[in-house]
Amino acid sequence: MIKVPVNFKRTEDAVEFVKIANEYPFQMDLASGSRIVDAKSLLGTIAISQAEGLSLRIYSNPSPSTEQLLNAMQNYL
């Protein structure tokens, strides 16, 4: 599992984040405390987007594909 902090400044950032997440085959969650949502769910991502201590969990081992994903999401990490 790969875990990285995430920060959204605007709702539009969350929308773009979900678009990017859906381009990759990995299972991903966004988590803050005891709240966890599917990172590919627009409604869930918007609902949790302003939470403190938000992190992205990618359920995969590090690979060139996960590095590509993280590079694509760099504006939100």
From TrEMBL:
SUPFAM superfamilies: HPr-like. InterPro entries: HPr-like_sf. This is HPr family phosphocarrier protein. It comes from Mordavella massiliensis.
